[in-house]
Amino acid sequence: MTKIQNFIEELNTNGVRYCHWKSNLSLSKSLSGQSDVDLLIHREDAGLFRTILSQLGFRPAANKDGESFPSIEHHFALDEESGVLVHVHAYFRVITGDSLSKNYRFPIEEMLLQNTRMEGTIPLLAKSAELIVFTLRIMLKHTSLVELVLLARYWKDVKQEISWLLETESIDESLSLVNCWLPSIEADLFSECVAALKAPASLFRRISLGLQLRSKLRIYARHSAVRAWLVGARKFTAMLFRRLTRSQKELIPQSGGAVIAFVGPEATGKSTLIAEMSGWLGEHFAIEHIHAGKPKSTLLTSIPNLLVPALRSLFPSSRSTRLEAQYLYEPSDKPQTSFPLIFAIRSALLAYDRRSLLSRAYSRAANGMIVLCDRYPSSQSGAPDGPQLSQLATPTDRYSIRHRLAHIEARLYRQIPPPDLVIYLNAPLEVALLRNATRGKKEPEDYVRRRHARSSNLEFEKAPIHKINTNQPLDKTVLEVKKALWNAL
User: Fold this and answer.
1) Environment class of 101 (CB within 10 Å of its CB; exposed 0-12, middle 13-18, buried 19+)
2) Gap between the Cα atoms of 97 and 422, Å rounded
3) What DSSP character marks residue 257?
4) 3-class secondary-structure state, position 201
5) Contacts for 474 with CB less than 8 Å, ≥ 6 apart
6) What pTM was computed for the model?
7) Distance separating alpha carbons of residues 450 and 443, to the nearest angstrom
8) Is residue 23 within 8 Å of 38, Cβ to Cβ?
9) Tell me: the pLDDT tens digits for 176-227?
10) CB 287 within 8 A of CB 371
11) Which domains does the chain possess?
12) Nearest 5°: phi and psi at 87?
């Protein structure tokens, strides 16, 4: 039994008064987790409804800007069989209208809950009642330029849904319900609105009817027309900004965000799994993907970092990959203080950039965002993405520049906040070598071997660790990561 089926069964068993009240033409998508499950719940059953959600592992979410609509809640749960994130969009009052400001509260909850039909085990609105809700929603969207822009994206679906609502029934029953529950709307006006959507009428005609309908419904408005317009314009601007910054969703877990670190040797699937989690969580939540292995330069380090490629060309022996092999793996009679100064400076600058990046990630997670981090500094010296200089500099020369840089580097790494969860990936060396040989960005084999050796026993003292062997089918690995990540939110 899927999570949604279990949820519906519990609602029915406990006698909760509810119905699926919007977009019933696409009910199959809702019940499979491909879209929201839009439920209208009787206010007297709200406590029982939330108890059932909690018992089934659903977790509440809120708007990132803190301005949630009244009487509307978002709840999410992981379907552990399919890995689908189930979204229950719960309404306790009919708050609707244009999509951005939802400026109307219609007193028709009892009418809707009394006019239902069963589809399998779930109660749906009768088409006569759903036609009322649909017509009001769509026609009110014609009263705002911003809403018209948004409506154009799914106008084809609108025409399909109005045809479906009218294919077996006349509007006589709908008119009777409108006359009883929304007496400010004349029957002729409602009929003209339905006809304008079905035909459809010209855009000018639909806008004219929408404005007439809005005038009749102003007694149910939550805000004045000017304030509603300002709210819609502000939200449209915010939505446009999120799209431009590739953070399209505005929901955040009500329990708070998190920094999730993906660590492990080369070719164990970090990039692949982060991409999978970004697509999965990004459908609903505000997320960000960062790379702690390659942090962007800060204001302090931008100029020195611009010189790095030239310095690598002039001093190839100072490349970090060569120094790893020379100083960390191959025994040498050279005193450790002879490591290149360029390497020490670069390591300190890198530590500064990582601290800046991960401190910002920590702040964003504190404000509700889910941050997926490719690689993360561990607590041990000499590990990948961690402090490199402390084990090279000897205590015999405490006042040297190298020793001072080692001290600065270690201090910067100690100041990095811990992640909320470490997804520690691993796979046998032979598997990692085979994956590396077949992927687009192929690394030298000796590099993969070194990184595998250095990353096979990482330590994270202040963060919970979930270890995953990725030497299994990808779908199983993805599901395991989803479960671990969801439990951390």
Assistant:
1) buried
2) 43
3) -
4) coil
5) 269, 272
6) 0.87
7) 11
8) yes
9) 999 999 999 999 999 999 999 999 999 999 999 999 999 999 999 998 888 8
10) yes
11) 3-244 (no CATH), 256-488 (3.40.50.300)
12) -115, 110
